[in-house]
């Protein structure tokens, strides 16, 4: 369900931040182009202007990258066309769901809508660093706070319809067991260990470290090793001393790594393959710097996770799949009922 709800939310998020994308069209005045009808949902029309409003950040990025005549660039045209198709489908779904909310009797109350607006505006302000920064972002894409509030209200209504469509979706334990048996390889953990490390990195990992860089990193890792030998806690030192910021916050943990993994450089893999449970390595040099590595949960052979350990995850996966199927099935039914027409050749 989270995945589908997230898709519905793209109508909001997509306006503020979307990936780059382009389109060919005959020469008309800008206003005439904006009014080009690219879809009909019952008696409602969707124009190219509506679509482009959804992907304004795309157009802005294209202009910055290719200039005002970006549509003459084949790469830009191709990318923008794909983005327009995606935005058009979202707008079609929006029209359908908003129309069906009242018919199904699931339209949210004014209090519910106001609550959703208040909560989500606070989230946006936090993400953008305050109301002023949020307003700047909205202005950059031709929007204002009222437009954002309207989108939030519409999104809340669409989520209510989604909930109504998927309310009867259930997944039994038998369903989960069948899936588990058919996908055991997915739940097989290869021989390996839970690996954590502390890194003293070189300044530039794209080139070979200078003697000075090497000596500096080696001195740092030796000092850390001395502290560990003196009884210091590995996880706490990783949090305060490791230059790998991605793992430092979790005590240097990289999770389970199979001994056969090719995702890590050879020197690092060789540095922990022969460590015993709870053992900490001597400093290990790689292209990234010097590592001290610790292993736990050492596993000498492949291990299949028990059904009970993954049952909840499987149930969530299957529920999501079934909700997706229910939603898409109902959407196609409503598209036929409302005689939805799309004109992608005009994008």
Written description of the protein model:
This protein is α+β, with helices and mostly antiparallel strands and 347 residues long. Among the domains are: 31-154 and 342-346, Triger factor/SurA peptide-binding fold (Orthogonal Bundle), CATH 1.10.4030; 191-301, Chitinase A, domain 3 (Roll). It is built from 14 helices and 9 strands. The strands form 3 sheets. It has a 4-stranded antiparallel sheet with strand order 5-4-7-6. Strands 2-1-9 form a 3-stranded antiparallel sheet. The longest helix is centred in the N-terminal third of the chain and has 31 residues, at 74-104. Residues 190-297 form the PpiC domain. GO terms for molecular function: peptidyl-prolyl cis-trans isomerase activity.
Label this structure with key terms.
extended, Triger factor/SurA peptide-binding fold, 347 residues, PPIase_PpiC_CS, four-stranded antiparallel β-sheet, alpha+beta, 13% strand, rotamase, Trigger_fact/SurA_dom_sf, 57% helix, peptidyl-prolyl cis-trans isomerase activity, three-stranded antiparallel β-sheet, Chitinase A, domain 3
Topology:
Elements: H1 2-16, H2 30-34, E1 37-41, E2 44-47, H3 48-54, H4 56-66, H5 74-104, H6 110-128, H7 131-140, H8 145-166, H9 173-182, E3 188-189, E4 192-201, H10 211-229, H11 234-241, H12 245-248, E5 253-258, H13 266-272, E6 284-286, E7 289-299, E8 303-304, H14 307-337, E9 341-342
Antiparallel strand pairs: 1-2, 1-9, 3-8, 4-5, 4-7, 6-7
Signal peptide: 1-21
Keywords: Isomerase, Rotamase, Signal
GO molecular function, one term: peptidyl-prolyl cis-trans isomerase activity
């Amino acid at each position: 369900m989270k995945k589908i709800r997230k898709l519905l939310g793209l109508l909001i998020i997509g306006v503020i931040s979307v990936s780059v994308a382009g389109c060919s069209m005959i020469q008309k005045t800008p206003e005439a182009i904006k009014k080009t009808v690219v879809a009909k949902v019952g008696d409602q029309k969707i124009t190219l202007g509506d679509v482009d409003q959804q992907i304004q950040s795309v157009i802005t990025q294209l202009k910055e990258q290719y200039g005002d005549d970006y549509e003459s660039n084949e790469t830009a045209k191709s990318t923008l066309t794909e983005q327009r198709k995606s935005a058009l489908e979202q707008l079609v779904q929006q029209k359908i769901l908003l129309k069906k909310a009242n018919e199904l009797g699931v339209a949210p109350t004014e209090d519910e809508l106001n609550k959703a607006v208040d909560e989500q505006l606070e989230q946006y302000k936090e993400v953008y660093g305050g109301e002023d920064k949020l307003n700047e972002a909205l202005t950059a894409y031709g929007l204002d706070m009222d437009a954002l509030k309207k989108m939030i209200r519409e999104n809340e209504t669409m989520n209510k319809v989604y909930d109504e469509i998927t309310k009867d979706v259930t997944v039994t334990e038998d369903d989960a067991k069948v899936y588990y048996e058919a996908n055991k390889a997915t739940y097989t953990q290869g021989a390996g260990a839970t690996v954590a490390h502390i890194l003293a990195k070189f300044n530039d990992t794209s080139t070979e470290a200078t003697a000075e860089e090497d000596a500096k990193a080696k001195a740092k890792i030796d000092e850390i090793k001395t502290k560990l030998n003196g009884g210091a806690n590995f996880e706490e030192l990783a949090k305060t001393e490791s230059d790998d910021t991605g793992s430092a916050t979790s005590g240097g943990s990289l999770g389970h790594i199979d001994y056969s993994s090719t995702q890590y450089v050879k020197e690092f893999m060789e540095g922990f393959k022969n460590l015993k449970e709870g053992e900490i390595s001597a400093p290990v040099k790689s292209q990234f710097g010097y590592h001290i590595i610790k292993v736990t949960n050492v596993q000498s052979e492949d291990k299949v996770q028990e059904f009970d350990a993954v049952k909840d995850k499987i149930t969530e996966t299957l529920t999501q799949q079934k909700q997706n199927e229910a939603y898409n099935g109902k959407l196609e039914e409503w598209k036929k009922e409302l005689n939805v027409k799309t004109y992608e050749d005009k994008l």
